């Protein structure tokens, strides 16, 4: 049984399950797999965006910092703004072909999906 400091536990104060694994502050974040192990999908999305198109990249697995770094690289190379949140990268405008090219050159497995 893991005997870390009880004050560092998050989300659960007490459990009657003797096999329960408590989460602790300071637990290591999951590592990001190599780009070739990623399976990214690239969409053009117009929903809830007042008719303006964005390029949406989904399927990223890894740390938030790595997601932000990839998003920043794509925004810089496309010369536009965007955002990263909830495991997705949003690039302003229709840049599906350019994003696909950039991701495959960086070693990611990516393909166009949807409309």
List the topology elements.
Layout: E1 9-10, E2 23-24, E3 39-45, E4 54-58, H1 64-78, E5 82-85, E6 88-92, H2 96-105, E7 109-112
Parallel strand pairs: 3-7
Antiparallel strand pairs: 1-2, 3-4, 4-6, 5-6
Describe the fold and architecture.
- With 115 residues, this protein is an alpha+beta fold.
- The chain has a domain of 78 residues: SUI1-like domain (Translation Initiation Factor Eif1), CATH 3.30.780.10.
- Helices cover 22% and strands 25% of the residues.
- The strands form 2 sheets. Strands 5-6-4-3-7 form a 5-stranded mixed sheet, covered by helices on one side.
- The longest helix has 15 residues.
- The termini are far apart.
Structural descriptors:
115 residues, five-stranded mixed beta sheet, globular, single chain
Strand order of the largest sheet: 5-6-4-3-7
CATH architecture of the domain at 35-112: 2-Layer Sandwich
Computed over alpha carbons, the radius of gyration is: 19 Å
**How large is the count of helical segments?**
2
CATH topology of the domain at 35-112: Translation Initiation Factor Eif1
Instruction: Enumerate the spans where pLDDT stays under 50 for 5 or more consecutive residues.
Output: none
Major sheet size, sense and barrel closure: 5 strands, mixed
N- and C-termini, Cα separation:
51 Å
Helix content: 10-25%
**Overall pLDDT score:** 80
CATH class of the domain at 35-112: Alpha Beta
What would you say about this model in short?
The chain has about 120 residues and is of the alpha+beta class.
């Amino acid at each position: 049984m893991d005997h870390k400091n009880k004050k560092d536990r998050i989300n659960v104060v007490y459990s009657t399950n003797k096999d329960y694994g408590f989460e602790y502050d300071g637990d290591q974040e999951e590592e990001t797999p190599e780009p070739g192990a990623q399976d990214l999908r690239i969409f053009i999305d117009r929903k809830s965006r007042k008719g303006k198109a964005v390029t949406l990249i989904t399927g990223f697995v890894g740390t938030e910092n790595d997601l932000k770094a990839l998003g920043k690289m794509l925004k810089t190379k496309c010369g536009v703004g965007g955002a990263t949140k909830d495991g997705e990268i949003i690039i302003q405008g229709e840049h599906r072909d350019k994003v696909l090219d950039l991701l495959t050159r960086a070693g990611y497995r990516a393909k166009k999906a949807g409309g």
